[in-house]
């Protein structure tokens, strides 16, 4: 993820592209991380805000949607091995080559999804947001590492999304991460955190 100094992940409105948040260096790094992943996952809202021509360097592309409403004209779904993950209550069908997978009754069961992906050979899953998808992964304890770019910008806003929103964790449930790598390029910071094992 890339965020402003005050923790925001958008520069305009929620449904707008954030191509101006990170630098050219950040975009190059993202392509390298994408290429190293076995699969890429994001939410339908994040995909709608992405450029339609976006075509990541990863064959397996996963979109998560509670309603099944995804932008079928996106290059993300038109190339590689696209998959849409929905709850079992969703009856939407998709054209080939999009694979539809259902986990959970009314919301997606991410633990079940990860078990399926692991069985399919996915060992490194890159989760690209948005903030609600990230929060669900964090809340379920499914995040091993975080790649965070800190952009030298301030956005402000009480209701502006951060890298992970969702339901707050209690004090006893707060997750701890270790800073394992840091790089500075001009005024931008590139940070890598790894989840500390439970005591």
3D architecture notes:
- The structure is a single chain.
- The mean pLDDT is 95.
- The chain is an alpha/beta fold.
- The longest helix has 13 residues, at 24-36.
- The strands form two sheets. It has a five-stranded parallel beta sheet with strand order 5-4-3-2-6. The chain has a four-stranded mixed beta sheet with strand order 1-7-9-8, with no helix packed on it.
- The protein is built from five helices and nine strands; from the N terminus they run E-H-E-H-E-H-E-E-H-E-H-E-E-E.
- The protein has helices spanning 24-36, 44-49, 75-78, 110-119, 131-139; strands at 2-3, 39-43, 60-64, 81-86, 99-102, 125-127, 145-150, 177-185, 188-195.
- Helix 2 links the parallel strand 2 (39-43) and strand 3.
- The chain has a single domain (2-195), classed as Dihydrofolate Reductase, subunit A (3-Layer(aba) Sandwich), CATH 3.40.430.
- It is globular.
- The two termini are 27 Å apart.
- 21% of the residues lie in helices and 24% in strands.
Layout: helices, strands, pairs:
Layout: E1 2-3, H1 24-36, E2 39-43, H2 44-49, E3 60-64, H3 75-78, E4 81-86, E5 99-102, H4 110-119, E6 125-127, H5 131-139, E7 145-150, E8 177-185, E9 188-195
Parallel strand pairs: 1-7, 2-3, 2-6, 3-4, 4-5
Antiparallel strand pairs: 7-9, 8-9
């Amino acid at each position: 993820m890339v965020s402003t100094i005050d923790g925001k992940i958008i520069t305009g409105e929620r449904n707008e592209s954030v191509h101006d948040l990170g630098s050219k260096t950040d975009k190059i790094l993202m392509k390298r991380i994408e290429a190293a992943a076995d699969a890429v996952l994001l939410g339908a809202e994040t995909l709608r805000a992405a450029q339609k021509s976006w075509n990541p360097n990863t064959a397996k592309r996963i979109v998560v949607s509670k309603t099944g409403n995804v932008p079928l004209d996106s290059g993300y779904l038109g190339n590689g091995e696209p998959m849409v993950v929905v709850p079992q209550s969703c009856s939407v069908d998709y054209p080939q080559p999009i694979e539809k997978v259902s986990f959970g009754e009314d919301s997606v069961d991410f633990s079940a999804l990860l078990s399926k992906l692991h069985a399919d050979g996915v060992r490194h899953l890159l989760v690209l947001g948005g903030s609600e998808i990230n929060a669900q992964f964090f809340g379920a304890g499914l995040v091993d590492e975080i790649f965070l770019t800190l952009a030298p910008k301030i956005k402000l806003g009480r209701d502006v999304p951060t890298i992970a929103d969702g339901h707050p964790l209690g004090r006893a449930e707060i997750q701890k991460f270790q800073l394992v790598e840091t790089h500075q390029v001009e005024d931008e910071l590139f940070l890598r955190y790894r989840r500390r094992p439970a005591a």
